[in-house]
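Operator note (shift B, R.M.): manual run for Stage 0 sporulation protein A homolog requested after the automated queue skipped it. Running by hand, logging everything below so the morning shift can see what happened. Input copied straight from the record, untouched. If output looks odd, do not overwrite the archive copy; leave it for review.
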Amino acid sequence: MPRILVVDDDKRIVKMVEQFLTLEGMNVVKAYDGRDAIALMDERIDLVLLDVNMEDIGGMEACKWIRERYKVPIIFLSANISSADKILGLGYGADDYITKPFDPMELIARIKAHLRRYTEYNEIFKPDQAIRFGDFTFIKSAHRLMKGEEELVLSSTEFKLLTFLIEHPGVVFSRKMLLAEVWESEHYDENTVTAYIKRLRQKIRLGEDDQAYIKSVRGVGYIFEAELCHPEN
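Run finished. Output pasted below as returned.
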């Protein structure tokens, strides 16, 4: 039974969402602000439905905290979503937006779609198994990246950066977030990320397209997009 964390300072919305999700066989954990969401978040949560505008700790801040620690899908709820807010939310790690007022059936459909993709991803990505995307085969446990029969030489930092991106497909990360996750140090600036992304792109380019897998999101950062699968035995 999927476990959904529903976070909104409007208790009526939380109750309404709980009723619909319960009818769909989902277990709902309720929170009414960002602080409660952080306190209730754990490994049992499968998806987070998060209001953007809340007092104390807002949705953006709660999203950032959750994304730094968990890979579960995060869907924002908001009555007023500007393009700038959408870009900011994606930068913090949100997976989707739904505008209030919303059709409950559309909400359920989106939740199911994200749960399905998240489940499929977890079944695919196992550290001791090879992962293929395009002509490339990635083996985390062996610290290897192959292009066909050729083994590509990656520095330890390049490999760590690629590993992080592959483990979070379809999520936009700012340069600042990548610095925190990959370099884990304040002694580097964002230009370091730019340089390493460029080097990595050159090694996993598709023909002349060096952004085939690591794409730029204007004004935000980078996103890894590829169809991941296990190579046939």
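Quick read of the result: The mean pLDDT is 85. The first helix runs from residue 11 to 23.
Leaving this for review. - R.M.
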